[in-house]
Each structure stands twice: as structure tokens, then as C-alpha cells.
Recover the amino acids of this structure.
């Protein structure tokens, strides 16, 4: 499974435009290999938007990027709604249907990105956290646990939390 992490900085006067542009990504629901996308505004910095999309594998994601991404992106006019964007890819082993079902109803997301080669995951419970790695051995920990704070095994360089914006949630059609 491949996870695309997108972080955008959005000026306050552009939030509504960004929100409307993000809704255009509903077109993903028919793309082969797409599983689910969700996002929302950072709970501590209203200028930061997070979007996470989940794909069956890198090949399906790359096919989408080569053949469909630019058309959706152009149609959304999203480029005009943010001041910065950062995109990262992570991979891991997870069931697409299980991830889709789990993220169908969640309302709150916490993530942590850890740079350590050996992860402090002694207390990790597989049913609470999804783990993915990037090409530099960083680990993305993704949970829909609404408990206050980040568990001690998720301490990393980047910790983020957001309420899921329902209008940004997209599931593939067959789910």
C-alpha cells in the first residue's frame, strides 16, 4: 500500500477556495487502485491543511499521476489556493478494504513521522495504528485514536492532528 501525505499552507482568506477545490478530488473514487482520501485543518494551526490518500500500490499511484492527476488538479484550480505544498510518499503493508472501512467513519486523525531507524514501538497495537515507511527509512504512524496526546511510541520529528473535513473524504466506488 502507498500513502501520499500532502501538507499545504493556506492563507485565511483562501480557506474557502481551498476547501471548494479539495472537493473536486471526489473524481478519485473511480480511479483504479485508489482506496481512500481524507484530510482536514490542523488542530493547532488553522493555516495548515493535511490530505492523506491511500493507494493499493505504487504502480497504480504512478499510473494515476501520469494519466489523470493533472486533469483533476487543473479542473480544481487548487494551485491558486495555497502558498506552500509538501508531498511525501510512504509504503507499508495493510489491507485496502480494512483501511477503507476503518477510515470511513473516523472524525479525528493523529500522525507522527519518526526519523529513527529503530522505532520505539514496544507499546504499539496493530489495531490502533497503521505504519508506513518512506525511501529514507522514516516511519509514518497513522491513527484514528481520539485519546488526548500522542502515545509515547509515536514521538517523532513531526506530530500532527486534524479533524476530518467530511467534504474532503473520498472512498472508491466499490466500497
Amino acid at each position: 500500500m502507498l500513502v501520499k501525505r500532502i501538507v499545504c499552507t493556506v492563507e485565511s482568506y483562501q480557506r474557502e477556495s481551498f476547501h471548494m477545490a479539495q472537493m473536486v478530488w471526489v473524481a478519485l473514487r473511480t480511479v483504479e487502485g485508489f482506496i481512500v482520501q481524507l484530510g482536514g485543518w490542523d488542530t493547532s494551526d488553522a493555516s495548515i491543511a493535511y490530505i492523506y490518500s491511500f493507494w493499493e500500490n505504487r504502480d497504480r499511484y504512478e499510473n494515476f499521476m501520469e494519466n489523470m492527476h493533472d486533469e483533476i488538479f487543473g479542473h480544481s484550480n487548487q494551485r491558486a489556493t495555497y502558498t506552500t505544498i509538501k508531498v511525501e510518499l510512504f509504503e507499508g503493508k495493510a489491507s485496502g478494504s480494512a483501511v477503507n472501512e476503518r477510515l470511513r467513519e473516523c472524525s479525528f486523525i493523529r500522525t507522527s513521522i519518526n526519523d529513527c531507524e529503530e522505532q520505539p514501538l514496544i507499546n504499539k497495537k496493530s489495531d490502533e495504528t497503521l505504519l508506513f515507511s518512506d525511501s529514507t527509512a522514516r516511519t509514518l504512524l497513522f491513527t484514528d485514536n481520539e485519546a488526548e496526546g500522542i502515545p509515547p511510541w509515536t514521538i517523532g520529528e513531526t506530530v500532527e492532528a486534524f479533524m476530518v473535513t467530511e467534504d474532503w473524504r473520498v472512498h472508491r466506488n466499490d466500497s
Observations:
- Residues 118-126 have pLDDT under 50 and may be disordered.
- Strands lie at 2-9, 34-41, 48-55, 84-91, 108-114, 129-133, 139-143, 158-163, 170-171.
- Residues 58-67 form the longest helix (10 residues).
